[in-house]
Amino acid sequence: MKSEASIKPSDGLKNVRYEIRGALARRAIELERQGYEIISLNIGNPGAYGFRTPEILRLALVQNLHQAEGYCYQKGIYPAREAILLQQQNRGVRGGSPETIFIGNGTSELIDMALRALLSAGDEVLVPAPDYPLWTAAVTLNGGKPVHYPCRPENGFLPDPKEVEALITPRTRALVVINPNNPTGAVYPREVLEGLARVAEKHGLMVFSDEIYDGITYENTPFVPIASLVNDTLCATLSGLSKVYRAAGYRVGWVSFSGATQRAAEYLAGVELLMSMRMCSNVPAQYTVHSALGGYQSIKDLTSPGGRLYESRRAVIEGVKRSKYLTLTAPAGALYAFIGVREEELPGFTDQQFALELLEEKHVLVTPGSAFNVPYRNHFRITMLPDAATITTVFERIEAHLDSWSARHSQPAPANTPRLVEASGRFK
Predict the structure, then answer these.
(1) Are residues 287 and 177 in the same domain?
(2) 3-class DSSP state for residue 426?
(3) Are residues 60 and 181 in the same domain?
(4) Least CB-packed of 211, 213, 361, 364 within 10 Å?
(5) How far is the CA of 74 from the CAs of 68, 234, 263, 279, 301, in angstroms?
(6) Per-residue pLDDT tens for 402-422?
(7) pTM across the whole model
């Protein structure tokens, strides 16, 4: 007799969220299949918006295919790790070597493995709020407890090291820094990073620094790698080719350990064990790392005045300035804007309801701010990857929708008004 019992997912997934590719994104795909043209602003995928990987990377990949058909060393090929080390040393980072660098299938895989090698059940990790939600999810999936430290809108989304320190308990193992920040675009000044480094060293916390947007800053904003400030504890710097070099599909990321590496020999052996169990990362694409880091940095052409990213960012800033409802801390780096809504102008505003209605009625897909693990519900994130003309169109649609919202909610709601329930993106 056949069992009719349904197959249940792991209990470990109960508190895991990744709404960037969740219900709203699935609904957008349904609408596209019905023939609607959706402007998707939920994912920072350069290739989807017409950006090309630099020619030198494509040539390096093709010309090395003949030696990339077998497994490589679990940490990655030596020329790639050497290029990463040289970049770190040129940025003032000390205490690393090619043997403390691991190449993975994107930074996402490395975040998971680096946390898995560190955490025991119940260990705590300090994660920024808002955060890139993979960090919160990866801590949870590896048995840890994410403890969110605030990066408040009124403080330009910068953390306060004193507030961070106040959250430390005997179970705290690590501090996560995302700089330049996704989703807010904040780029942390040296004094903030110094404060965070001293807190980590004082309490023996490992530092994880997510720097996947390290080459994407605007208006001459300086980028300071926190690893250059951390000496007396272990620092893991994560970066890769997906954003700066527009090579997301190559799936090449790396984690570079620096600082007190000698005291972390057992932990690093644990990371290597996990790397060995998955054999190695994408070999052909590893041959592009040396060319990427050592070649012409074309990202600067895109982020300088007249460059496409610069002009798209300007279109976002101007779109918010024209709005009666929106606020923005201008992003100093990365590929996103974390846009606030003046709730006093929009009674009853909630980010989830707004995002669903904007998709259904205006065919624009954004990500609700609450998806980034913040307690407030009056923000949403967009990517700045589309061209300036598309972004201008987006803000015209957003403003029209918010005008409609204001008109609807300033009057008593009629009976049977649709309301959003669940995270499934459906009305009841």
Answers:
(1) yes
(2) strand
(3) yes
(4) 361
(5) 14, 21, 22, 6, 35
(6) 999 998 877 654 555 444 433
(7) 0.92
Q: Please report, for residues 23, 128, 212, the alpha-carbon distance to residue 132 in angstroms, rounded to integers and kept in the order given.
A: 17, 8, 11
State yes or no: cis peptide before 225, omega within 30 of 0: no
Structure tokens at 137: 């999810």
Element (H, E) at 388: helix 388-409
- CA-based nearest residue to 247, from 239, 236, 257, 256: 239
pLDDT in tens, 159-181: 999 999 999 999 999 999 999 99
**Nearest residue to 150 (alpha-carbon basis) of 164, 169, 133, 166:** 164
Range of the domain at 219: 55-294
Q: What percent of the chain clears pLDDT 90, i.e. is strictly above it?
A: 88
The alpha carbon of 163 is separated from its chain's Cα centroid by a whole number of angstroms, namely 22
User: What is the arithmetic mean of pLDDT over 24-48?
Assistant: 95
| Residues forming a β-bridge with 102 | 255
Task: Tally the C-alpha atoms within 13 A of residue 274's C-alpha that lie toward its C-beta.
Answer: 18
Length, in residues, of the chain: 428
Q: What is the CATH number of the domain that holds 204?
A: 3.40.640.10
Contact by Cβ (8 Å): 62, 387: no
